[in-house]
Amino acid sequence: MAPVTDISTNTSGSNVSSVSVTLSHAANAFVLGVASVNVSTGILSMTVAGDAMTQLSTVVNTSGTHASYYLFRAGNGSNELVALNLGAASILTFEAISFTGTASTTPFVEGITTATGTGKTNAATNVSVATGTANRLAIQTVGGFTNASNVITLTLGAGQTSILTGTVGLGSSALANANYIASSGAVNLSATCTFITNNRGVIYSI
Hints:
By secondary structure, the protein is an all-beta fold. It has strands at about 5-25, 30-35, 45-50, 50, 55-60, 65-75, 75-100, 115-120, 120-130, 135-145, 150-155, 160-170, 175-180, 185-195, 200-205. The strands form three sheets. Strands 1, 2, 3, 4, 5, 6 and 7 form a seven-stranded antiparallel β-sheet that branches. Strands 8-15-10-13-12 form a five-stranded antiparallel β-sheet, with no helix packed on it.
């Protein structure tokens, strides 16, 4: 069987350099942390109950930073604190998701592909995933940014299932999303962010 989503939660903030959420996950869980922050000074760390998470990928430009981190947790987690620490105060949205049924030893991740798109009205990305392990999830995380206080809307490609989306719009706007396709075959995951006030924005996919 393919891995399944166990539990997910998110939070947003303005002019903060750290945030956290609590996650009560099953045993043998793959915990994924996803963050979009509107500063390019970067993300210092993500942790689960004080244990450092491993960076999957980080994409940075002058509009902001989008990053995904992970950690495998063998035991049950009761209200474990999943924390994000930044290099500077920021507008941000952060989410933590746990999956069960994943690999229980390294490598936990088959491969990583990133893409970036920019536009005035909308920005789009496409990431292609090659044929791989049976019963896998091809997971895409998406970050969107614009310099206006408007809500960014997100459209995913056909067949993609959204797990969780977080948005914040206070002076500028940020969006974070995680979605997937369950397939061992070659797949394409796409995402489009629309910027309502037609301000230039950027979208990242990992």
